[in-house]
Design a protein that fits this description.
Elements: E1 3-7, E2 10-12, E3 18-25, E4 32-39, E5 46-51, E6 57-59, E7 67-72, E8 77-82, E9 91-99, E10 113-114, E11 118-122
Parallel strand pairs: 2-11
Antiparallel strand pairs: 1-3, 3-8, 4-5, 4-9, 5-6, 7-8, 9-10, 9-11
Length: 124
């Protein structure tokens, strides 16, 4: 059974940083495409960044240059390093996994397994 657990969320001032973690048990994340997406109440889900099982990475325009996605196979985890955070980054952040194919996408509905989410709040 696939289970994804996000952690690392919290409250930070604008310009600050957070590192989110997506950890899995009983399966190997390296064989999957992994997506970070976020959601604000009343708004559609927004794909943030993904990493393909071949290591290729992709970013939404809104976070490119500020966020970095990377994996640690030894820990069976994928991370989202979030720098230069803005108020508009406030959301619940989720990770999602799907069997790897030619490239990952930033579309949450294309991923089979989702985590429970972790809250990120950016405010003065």
């Amino acid at each position: 059974q696939v289970q994804l657990v996000e952690s690392g969320g919290g409250s930070v001032q604008p310009g600050g940083s957070l590192r989110l973690s997506c950890a899995a048990s009983e399966f190997t994340l390296a064989y999957y495409d992994i997506l970070w997406f976020r959601q604000v109440p009343g708004k559609e889900r927004e794909g943030v960044s993904c990493i393909s099982n071949d290591g290729s990475t992709y970013y939404a325009d809104s976070v490119r240059g500020r966020f970095t996605i990377f994996g640690d196979n030894a820990k069976n985890a994928v991370y989202l390093q979030m720098n230069s955070l803005k108020a508009e980054d406030t959301a619940v952040y989720y990770c999602a996994a799907d069997k790897g194919d030619w490239a990952c996408t930033l579309t949450p509905d294309e991923y089979e397994f989702w985590g429970q989410g972790t809250q990120v709040t950016v405010s003065s």
